[in-house]
């Protein structure tokens, strides 16, 4: 007993590295990612974020304390006030307005991941839901930090995706990531080995669905 968040990544180390260090991430960091791949990813991510905002709303609904409610509210606010703004802004530059985005058909990878998280949250408790959401929030913070530590990463105007990296390395996101880490560390400290096994399964599934999401962007599949 006495688990913490790092035990979740350690339990699926290969999948976690395949997610954080995916070719999509590498090419984005190098600035060499095809614009069509990034556009496809970002358009699908717009649809994805709307469902993830619903998942944070579900976390608010399942909260028993004001502290838990605040934690869910932070996630919902970050999506609605910050993250979606970047997506809408990039798409506007490509001549795609928000009404066009809302009309896009959902790719299978988007459907699978978002509905998995919502189903896990509906079926389970608040901890199941936060664990299903963790690869997303904590993973993207780690990805931004990992990219900044790689020699191939290009920053500034020479990289068309610089704003993407800047958002996830920014204080708002890094702060939200740390708050989520603390929240999870506090809850995982008390779980039994059997419960940890269950939660590891949820975390691994969500991580694998993140890998599929990158792959969907790279191959522009629907
Ligand atoms: C496929 C995919 N996975 C993770 C994120 C990142 N993200 C989504 S919601 C959230 C928490 C609050 O903003 C974060 C960091 C994304 N955009 N798209």
Oligomerization state of this entry?
single chain
Reported CATH architecture: Up-down Bundle
Secondary-structure content class: mainly alpha
The level of helicity is over 70%
Question: What is the number of helices?
Answer: 11
* Largest sheet composition: none
Overall geometry comes to globular
| C-alpha end-to-end distance | 42 Å
User: Are any ligands bound, and if so which?
Assistant: ligand VIB
How large is the radius of gyration? 17 Å
Description:
It catalyses: thiamine + H2O = 5-(2-hydroxyethyl)-4-methylthiazole + 4-amino-5-hydroxymethyl-2-methylpyrimidine + H(+); 4-amino-5-aminomethyl-2-methylpyrimidine + H2O = 4-amino-5-hydroxymethyl-2-methylpyrimidine + NH4(+). Pathway: Cofactor biosynthesis; thiamine diphosphate biosynthesis. Belongs to the TenA family. This is Aminopyrimidine aminohydrolase. Its EC number is 3.5.99.2. The structure is a single chain. With 222 residues, the chain is mainly alpha-helical. It has a single domain (5-219), classed as Heme Oxygenase, Chain A. The protein contains eleven helices and no strands. The chain has helices at residues 5-11, 13-20, 23-30, 35-61, 66-93, 98-103, 108-123, 126-148, 162-169, 171-188, 193-219. The longest helix has 28 residues, at 66-93. The protein is globular, with a radius of gyration of 17 Å. The termini are far apart. The model has no long low-confidence stretch (mean pLDDT 95). Residues 45, 48-49, 52, 75, 78-79, 83, 136-137, 140, 210, 213 line the site of the ligand Cc1ncc(C[n+]2csc(CCO)c2C)c(N)n1.
């Amino acid at each position: 007993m006495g688990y913490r968040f790092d035990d979740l990544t350690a339990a699926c180390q290969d999948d976690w590295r395949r997610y954080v260090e995916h070719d999509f991430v590498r090419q984005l960091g190098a600035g060499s990612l095809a614009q069509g791949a990034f556009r496809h990813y970002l358009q699908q991510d717009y649809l994805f974020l709307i469902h993830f905002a619903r998942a944070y709303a579900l976390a608010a609904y399942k909260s028993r304390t004001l502290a838990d409610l605040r934690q869910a509210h932070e996630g919902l606010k970050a999506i609605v006030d910050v993250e979606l703004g970047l997506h809408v802004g990039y798409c506007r530059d490509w001549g795609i307005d928000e009404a066009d985005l809302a009309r896009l058909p959902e790719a299978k990878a988007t459907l699978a991941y978002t509905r998995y998280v919502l189903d896990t949250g509906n079926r389970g408790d608040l901890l199941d839901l936060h664990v299903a959401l963790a690869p997303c929030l904590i993973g993207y913070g780690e990805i931004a930090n990992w990219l900044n530590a790689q020699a191939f990463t290009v920053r500034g105007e020479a990289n068309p995706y610089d704003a993407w990296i800047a958002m996830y390395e920014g204080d708002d996101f890094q702060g939200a990531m740390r708050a989520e880490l603390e929240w999870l560390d506090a809850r995982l400290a008390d779980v039994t080995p059997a419960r940890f096994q269950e939660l590891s399964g949820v975390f691994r599934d969500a991580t694998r669905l993140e890998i599929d999401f990158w792959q969907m962007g790279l191959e522009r599949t629907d």
